[in-house]
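Q: Could you write out the predicted structure for this multi-component system? I'm mainly interested in how the pieces pack against one another.
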Amino acid sequence: MLRVKDLNVIFGHGSARNHAVKNVSFSVNRGERFGLVGESGSGKSTVLNCISGLLDNWQGTIEIDGQPLSRKRTLSFCRNVQMVFQDPYGSLHPRHTIDRTLKEPVAIHKLGDGNRRVQQVLEEVGLGPQFRYRYPHQLSGGQRQRVAIARALILEPEIILLDEPTSALDVSIQAEVLNLLADIRQKRNLTYVLVSHDLAVVSHMCDTISVMNRGETVEIISRKQLQESDFSHHYTRQLLVASKGYDRAAIDLFQDF
Amino acid sequence: MNDPETLLTVHNLSVVFPSLKGDVQAVNNISFSLGKEKIGIVGESGSGKSVTGRAILRLLPPYARIQADTISYKDKNLLSFSEKEMRRIRGMEISMVMQDPKYSLNPVRTVGEQIIEAYAIHRKVSKREAKQRAIAMLEAVRIRNPQQVYKLYPHEVSGGMGQRIMIAMMLIPEPSLLIADEPTSALDVTVQLQILAILDDLVTRRGMGLIFISHDLELVASFCDRIIIMYGGRIMEIVDADRLHMSGHPYTRGLLNCLPKIAGTQEKLPTLVREESWLHPATPTISIGN
Amino acid sequence: MHDNYSGNQTRKQWLLTDTPASAFQASLGRAYLGFLEFGRNRLAVLGLLIITGLVVVAVFAPQIAPFDPIETNLTNRLQPLSVHHFFGTDEVGRDIFSRIVWGSRLTLYVIGLVAIIAAPVGILIGTVSGYFGGFIDTVLMRITDIFLAFPKLILALAFVAALGPGIENAIIAISITSWPPYARIARAETITIRNSDFIKAIRLQGAGPIRIISGHIMPLCISSLIVRVTLDMAGIILTAAGLGFLGLGAQPPSPEWGAMTSSGRAYILDHWWLITMPGTAIFIVSLAFNLLGDGLREVLDPKSDS
């Protein structure tokens, strides 16, 4: 479904040169849930931005259904691949009602029947019709993230890119949003690419997990391998130890990678 | 653990923010005390955990109404203190580390100057001695090249380094109590743990008290001795960290259950069902029928 | 249930509901909240009242003015204030009150046209420049810089000198010198908005630059621009008056306030009202626009929220 091969991204020149993504390759099957996990500066979000088309200074190949993508994305690509952002407070236009935010993509792609689509997608993400004409500031963080998911769904894409979709939310809200994402995927048979710094979230949501560090893929493992500690790299092990909470003795063994 | 001598006592603290739409009760009648220990305040956004920390040091905006029966520190009644006396308490006796070092450090002065200033405000020492102390402090927070870092400007250091510098700055006047408000939430998990280890070592070595405010229940449980769990401006319960997983309070249970786990299944996560009764302690959670 | 409320209260609830039933109700509710916020600033309300008064006076000038503003009457020249001539008469016997009343039309004409010409030009250039960046940005901003490098009045003077004196040319000259600050503001706003997630989201949904700039970026720039334009109105009035004073704006005998102060200055010692009355009118209207601008900033510009 989605194939990334030898992806490289370089920001800046000279002394400010930053090789943000180095030779990253992976492929995601239809209906698979693929997780990219790493710390800040690992390049995980940059990879996502290359796939979505927000960044255009990449080198390498990105294919969808065997068709290589160009730097400039077509309308049909936009219908097929959608993204949900991290910050629920920044991803909705502050002066547009939810209705307008959701109708806009329908208008861009001239799908028609906007009212019915909006109503249906709001229902699907668990927001009643009373939310439809509200402004974002009248919603809680979790409700906004539901609207952001609805906006991605309204174009009926096959691939959804999730950039830390729950890291700005409280844990109780995170659980609700993760459940919603799981439900929707099952119902629509979606393919997810999830970026997160939280190993537990990735393990809960994904089948295959790519561990990244400093722009490079450390290793790609299955969820089962992660659970059984069946992996080879120290970096992955350190992440796993760190995500288990504070352990004074273990911290002294941490290395810089 | 062993009965520690009491550093801070808070009794019936309430904080109200007046607003156009009516008063907002951010903190509602909370009481706790702590000694030379690590105590965690955990809650979701809007639970009043940060407001509590700031109310103790009177760092809230002037329109906030703070009420309490007692806020006493080492048997001194902080409520009766003037603003000038509070300034002596802040830093010298009780310090605070905030979430983002980028906003807490002055961008146009070097790290060294700022640490020295934090020291010199409270103690009369020569410049050379202050500098030596500052470098020793940077070493204590495990900065490998303190001489070099001393001369850097805040924008030249990473987030983790910045937070170490903040901790150095806050601990150099040798306070007896440190309030850390989400000190590591903006950092990567490994860096976060390393910084907590530094805090842990310093607090233990100096016999300080620590109030650690965080949204991360599992982290606090593994780091602190006792945990205060807040919801809607009220304390739900105060538990010993090692007994957290045995807690019977529905809110605590709900928070623990809704966390995804690496070893867990991919089944639906249980969601937290909030109950009105948690916010009304007059109605006991154990019904009379039992 | 509804019987318990007066009609007034239900209307208020309808406006402020958290569950509006239509886009129209939602935007009305928003406007109402803004109105409430604005009403808390007494001085801004005063400014608004003065400007409303100005508009009323301009609209009903023929009914309000007791005399013809242009017809001279040399037997009646330089009369002091009286019940007959509220503000006295000028050096050719025209009633100053009537001239000021008619002059309000010219003042509104000038500021209205300048705002209609300069603000859209500024916002268009600023948002396009800020959104695309790169080469387009460099070119547009250097042009803006060239206009900003000259003092406003001097540049306006040069344009009027080239175009010929007259009120229309004065308006064109003031518009040409007024748009660069608006372009700067719009560009600065656009650059911060451009990188926000909601713009990324709409880009990923396939929206083109025209839709993004006009539907998503401009609405967010407009509020700070309205504030700036309102605050600039005072300056525009003063520039127009200055041009009139220098004889390059409205031409005699039209009752433009600046031209009136200019012709009155020869009589400043013996007949103070000739220059004081139009001068006071300029002062009050400029002040009113400044007060209104401050009030609007509190309502519209989220950055001044504390």
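A: Regarding packing and overall arrangement: Residues 1-5 of chain C have pLDDT under 50 and may be disordered.
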